[in-house]
């Protein structure tokens, strides 16, 4: 599925060497990034770029108003551009973080200002590489990146789709920018629908499950703050155990289930209540919606 994968953690000791000891990454200290749209997703993308080594003064932000650009830049520890043109001037990387319905109009509006050597990264769901390339001058380098919000703490996932004009060097640069995001993998535009079900939207499904588990812990008699920490730590611990051991989830589950014990009774209740099929339905709905949003 992938031709390139990068993994990292927020606790990595140096931003220039990969967890698996792969070759050193690009020095990002001179890379200039224009971020158009630093909202719920553009903001975490800015944070991960800064964590990877982009210098705050080289990360120029522009939102829909000067006040909003200033606010976002301050929050993120980056620079507000005086104008969209200023953000784009000499940019090596242009990130488009606006809503999907705005994306192609924005691409058309900036087509003459995107520097010829820049790589344009779109975060938008449902807008294809071909559509974005069609809105820009011929031969422009375009990638799509589909991140989830846990990239803001270095524990997210990003699926990257590479356009036909992107050079190996530019593609490496995009990977290096996301090197502190968690896991960054190359996917095809066909795979992005499954990726949205399995990563992009999945964090929200996990938040909903965590909320339900915490509420039930409170109903069972635990104080809210204790319930929060027990549930969150257990979810993190379960995921970390699987990640670090490589153990199959079913094997780990069986390891907690003694005959006639508390866990098997709880697992039987989960199956009776249809939790497995509910989770599958949520993921399938997200993937299907992504397919329907894609018209290109
Ligand atoms: N949210 C997610 O979990 C997620 C996951 C994967 C991908 N995405 C993608 O990320 C993109 C952004 O979604 P979002 O949830 O981050 O939306 P959002 O929170 O509404 O952010 C959109 C940003 O675009 C800015 N903006 C709007 N019009 C603009 C313009 N004409 N020029 C410059 N900036 C403008 C907004 O600035 P103002 O605040 O000043 O209006 C805001 O900062 C979408 O394409 C979405 O598909 C989102």
Automatic annotation (TrEMBL):
Name of the protein this chain belongs to: Pyrroline-5-carboxylate reductase
Binding site residues for NADP(+): 36-41
Q: Lineage of this protein's species?
A: Bacteria, Bacillati, Actinomycetota, Actinomycetes, Micrococcales
Q: Which GO terms describe its biological process?
A: L-proline biosynthetic process
According to the entry, every stretch annotated as the Pyrroline-5-carboxylate reductase catalytic N-terminal domain falls at 32-126
Known catalytic reactions: L-proline + NADP(+) = (S)-1-pyrroline-5-carboxylate + NADPH + 2 H(+); L-proline + NAD(+) = (S)-1-pyrroline-5-carboxylate + NADH + 2 H(+)
Q: In which pathway does it act?
A: Amino-acid biosynthesis; L-proline biosynthesis; L-proline from L-glutamate 5-semialdehyde: step 1/1
Q: What would be an example GO MF term here?
A: pyrroline-5-carboxylate reductase activity
Q: What class of enzyme is it?
A: oxidoreductase
- Similarity-based family: Belongs to the pyrroline-5-carboxylate reductase family.
Keywords from the UniProt entry: Amino-acid biosynthesis, Cytoplasm, NADP, Oxidoreductase, Proline biosynthesis
Q: What is its EC number?
A: 1.5.1.2
- Its source organism is Brachybacterium alimentarium
Q: Where in the cell is it found?
A: Cytoplasm
Return the GO cellular component terms, semicolon-separated: cytoplasm
Query: Where does this chain mainly localize?
Result: cytoplasm
Q: What does this protein do?
A: Catalyzes the reduction of 1-pyrroline-5-carboxylate (PCA) to L-proline.
- Bias class Low complexity marks the residues at 1-16
The domain of life is Bacteria
Pyrroline-5-carboxylate reductase dimerisation domain location is 189-293
Q: Kindly name one Pfam family recorded for this protein.
A: P5CR_dimer
Region called Disordered, residue ranges: 1-24
């Amino acid at each position: 599925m992938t031709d390139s994968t990068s993994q990292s953690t927020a606790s990595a000791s140096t931003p220039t060497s990969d967890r698996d000891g792969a070759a050193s990454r690009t020095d990002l200290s001179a890379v200039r990034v224009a971020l158009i749209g630093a909202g719920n997703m553009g903001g975490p993308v800015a944070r991960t770029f800064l964590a990877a080594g982009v210098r705050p003064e080289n990360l120029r932000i522009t939102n829909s108003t000067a006040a909003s650009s200033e606010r976002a830049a301050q929050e993120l520890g980056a620079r507000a551009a005086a104008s969209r043109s200023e953000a784009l001037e000499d940019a090596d990387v242009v990130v488009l973080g606006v809503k999907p319905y705005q994306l192609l109009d924005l691409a058309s509006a900036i087509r003459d200002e995107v520097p010829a050597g820049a790589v344009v990264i779109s975060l938008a769901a449902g807008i294809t590489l071909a559509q974005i390339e069609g809105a820009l001058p011929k031969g422009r380098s375009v990638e799509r990146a589909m991140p989830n919000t846990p990239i803001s703490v270095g524990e997210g996932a990003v699926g990257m789709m590479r356009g036909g004009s992107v050079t190996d060097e530019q593609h490496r640069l995009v990977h290096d920018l996301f090197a502190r995001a968690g896991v960054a993998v190359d996917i095809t535009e066909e795979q992005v629908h499954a990726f949205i079900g399995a990563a992009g939207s999945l964090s929200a499904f996990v938040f909903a499950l965590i909320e339900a588990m915490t509420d039930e812990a409170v109903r069972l008699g635990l104080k809210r703050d204790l319930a929060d920490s027990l549930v969150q730590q257990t979810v993190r611990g379960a995921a970390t155990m699987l990640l670090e051991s490589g153990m199959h989830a079913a094997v780990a589950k069986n390891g907690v289930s003694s005959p006639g014990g508390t866990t098997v009774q709880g697992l039987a209740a989960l199956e009776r209540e249809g939790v497995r099929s509910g989770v599958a339905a949520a993921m399938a709905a997200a993937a299907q919606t992504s397919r329907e949003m894609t018209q290109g």
